[in-house]
Amino acid sequence: MDRIELHDVEYGDCTVFVGRDQSVLMIDCGSSSEYTRRDGTAIHARFDAIFRRYIPAASRQFLLTHYHRDHMSGFLRKLRDDPNYFDLVYVPAVPFCGDACPVLEIALFSRHFSAPQSDFSQVNTACLSIFDRLQTTVGAKRIRTLCAGDVFSFDHTPYAVLSPDAAAFPYGEELVEAASALSDTLALYPDASDFLRLKDVFLRAYRRCQSAFSPSSKIPLEQREALLSDLSAVWRDLEALRGTLGHLPVLDTLREKLAAVRTLYTETQNALSLVFHNVRTHSGGPDVLMTGDADPAVLERLAPKLYTGYYAVKAPHHGTESHRCPLFSDMEIGHFLISNGDYHAGGAVSMRYIASESIKHCTNTSACPWFGENESCCNRLLRCYEQPLSGALTLKCSAAAGNRRTPCNIYVFGHNGVCGCHCDRMK
Known about the structure:
- The protein has helices at about 45-55, 70-80, 100-115, 120-125, 125-135, 175-185, 195-210, 220-240, 250-260, 260-270, 295-300, 350-355, 370-375; strands at about 5, 10-20, 25-30, 60-65, 90, 145, 150-155, 155-165, 275-280, 290, 310-315, 330-340, 360, 385, 390-395, 410-415, 415-420.
- By secondary structure, it is α/β, with parallel strands linked by helices.
């Protein structure tokens, strides 16, 4: 890998690996905002600038870590406007528990029974239609699903997916019981029998697609296309029911049950983020850990698979305290990648990142309590060991003097152009 580029997309994520052959792997591209808070520009303008930057790339791949708007809204817009932009698209597989899948089931109930324009209908149900969207845009040949145990390649480097485990993810009992209770409640009403039947058909078809599109699958392209068509047909049948279920007398009860698990459902989607790192090879290269919005419990379970140190780690969930993993304190980490925004709905950047000896690369200063109090970058007096002569203060970095090339090869693209690790220059 030649370099890592982070893009300011307000409260959202967009990280790009640029290969030595100038190929790119874009990891997430989304925002929870419609406008950039600094100048009121539509967030789509930021997305357009990002996508224009990589038009000359030798090849373009996209990897979605999980199904939240702040990670995928820009990507979905690009799919709609330019289906041929990405040569390959990786999406996360949703884990099953036997024949059940609480995340997909609650998403289906939310789409059909939640109040219009709720957070569920706008954000969390995107996992339901992802295969239908991809089939009608990039096509079956360019789709891959990922889960723990899978390996994919970028710039001649293999990357191992560490989480989630598609067959053994530890769903919380509350979520599993909530999904079951929703079905049990609806089963009392004969008019809902078509929905419950199609729900089960949909789950089976969805699972077959996830398996068929894994990197290790040997299923021929024609059969994968047929599986996508089967899933899309069931999805259309389910969508056709949306207007016929509003008369059920159980509607208010279902909405109360959904509201009760809304936060847990959202947190579970975060926990299902793809977590991956490079596989160490004889050719070397920087060790990089990408975490999506995985919570500390997920990362703690992965401890035996993690390296003792990394060149760069993507701070989970925008660098907030709620998702800061204690494991990081025991690791040798050269650089943290932190994406946050003026509208930091999930919280400010954790002081534990700020106090660490790692160099922080942040897309925005508004969410930083250190910058708010000191009006200067927390990196200013830290040593960066990527500089010549066994390291020097970050103030001696070429990026601090306005040079666009940095020894660490990590860049942040914000409202005022590109900089290294000195967020003072963002104002």
